[in-house]
Specification:
The chain has about 300 residues and is of the alpha/beta class. Helices cover about 50% and strands about 15% of the residues. α1 packs across α8 and α6 runs antiparallel to α11.
């Protein structure tokens, strides 16, 4: 598809199942958020995000954008520790995670296998049980993998009085845990069907991936009265070009090769916290500079350890 193809009307980039998945995720996200909004304002507000713009919000992809690696893998590790499945299943999760980290992009077949495995594992379990376990798994495996630079970007939006949402293919219950622990507004994620609080092993629509993410953001923006031209979106993956193309302020964070090329063609802002490189365009909140140094230092230490 041509570089500007994602800017065409919805019918070319989304299926009926994408729309259903997006709308279900938006509804689940809004139900989980209190009516109150933080008033906190930074004393040294940069030009963007705009202070007090209540028609603007920020949307952040999760895996490799906010957090190093795949959240579904870390969730799988936690469930394995709690005897939800066997060693062979963990080995499959590990292979999928290794591919994601080394290749730098999502393999659709691996992602589908991971989602199918997760659905079969949680079938018959109560939603409340998984939410409680998700809190524990965040502390065990995820908290230390948050990119400081991306976290600073999200905080800049919060300090400007704007809402900040995670948008991820991970289960919405897990995404909501991560968003809450990071102090964000809420999360859009894949919605697994449940009846009377028990998982059925099926999805509502399809995984929140690619065009479905754009549909979720579109639905949430409509419900919240947001102006997408004043909103920002952040992602590492070319699969999220539909979402990035919806907003007036798209950012490529730790981008894969295809997204980096696309971002440069369209003059989108770039930031890579894996190496500590500076942004390719000015205008990213100054607070993120501190996070970039911390993120780059952590990456350098990890690389040094692997080489020893």
């Amino acid at each position: 598809m041509a570089a500007l193809g994602w800017l065409t009307p919805r019918r070319r980039s989304a299926t009926a199942r994408s729309v259903l998945a997006g709308e279900a995720s938006a509804e689940a996200a809004r139900k989980s958020v209190p009516d109150t909004v933080s008033d906190s304002v930074s004393d040294a507000e940069p030009e963007f995000p705009v202070l007090g713009d209540d028609k603007a919000a920020a949307f952040f992809d999760l895996d490799n954008t906010v957090m190093q690696g795949a959240s579904l893998f870390h969730f799988g590790r936690g469930l394995y520790k709690r005897k939800f499945f066997e060693t062979r299943d963990l080995a499959k999760f590990a292979w999928q995670q290794a591919w994601f980290r080394l290749a730098g992009f999502e393999d659709p077949e691996h992602m589908q296998e991971a989602r199918d495995s997760a659905l079969s594992i949680v079938k018959g379990h109560r939603v409340a049980e998984l939410q409680s376990i998700g809190e524990e798994i965040y502390d065990e495996y995820m908290a230390e993998r948050i990119w400081p630079g991306t976290r600073a970007l999200a905080q800049a939006h919060l300090d400007a009085g704007q809402k900040v949402w995670l948008v991820t293919a991970a289960p919405v219950e897990i995404a909501q845990v991560i968003a809450r622990r990071l102090g964000l507004t809420g999360a859009l994620g894949t919605v697994a069907e449940s009846v009377d609080g028990v998982y059925t092993g099926k999805l509502v629509g399809e995984p929140l991936h690619g065009p479905a993410k754009a549909e979720a953001v579109r639905a949430l923006a409509a419900a919240e009265g947001l102006d997408l031209s004043r909103c920002a979106a952040y992602s590492d993956s070319h699969n999220d070009i539909p979402m990035l193309s919806l907003v007036g302020h798209p950012y490529a964070i730790n981008p894969d090769t295809k997204l980096r090329k696309h971002a440069r063609q369209l003059d989108w802002r770039l930031r890579d916290y894996r190496t500590g490189r500076k942004a390719a365009k000015v205008g990213i909140p100054a607070a993120a500079g501190v996070g970039a140094v911390a993120g780059g230092t952590a990456a350098a230490i990890a690389l040094h350890k692997r080489r020893r």
